[in-house]
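User: I'm curious whether this sequence folds into something compact or stays loose and floppy. Could you predict its structure so I can see for myself?
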Amino acid sequence: MTTYRLYFRDSMGICGRQDFEASDDRTAAFVAETLSDACSDISGGCELWQGSRPIDLGVLRPAQSADEVRARAQEIVVECEEAIQRSQWAIARSQRLLERMNGLRVKR
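Assistant: Here's the prediction. I'll summarize afterward.
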């Protein structure tokens, strides 16, 4: 597993940050895009990094089906969403994130 860092951005700059581990860049990109969408009421976008290497989200698309990637990344997303909500970052106030978390809990 490799550690990735996701930065959430708004008009003022970085409004949140979350570290997570994923098996590869494609899985990390899926996690980043899912979390970015979940926090889109606060954040206008995101950046994904692995160490000092930026990950270009526009280039990476899953080689497997979205369902296969989703199955591997779902647990990572839930852990990150919970950590974001507990953080002191501005992104923690995201109502959309809270709604997504509640929706995932219902599906479990």
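Summary: The chain has one domain: 2-107. Residues 2-107 form one domain.
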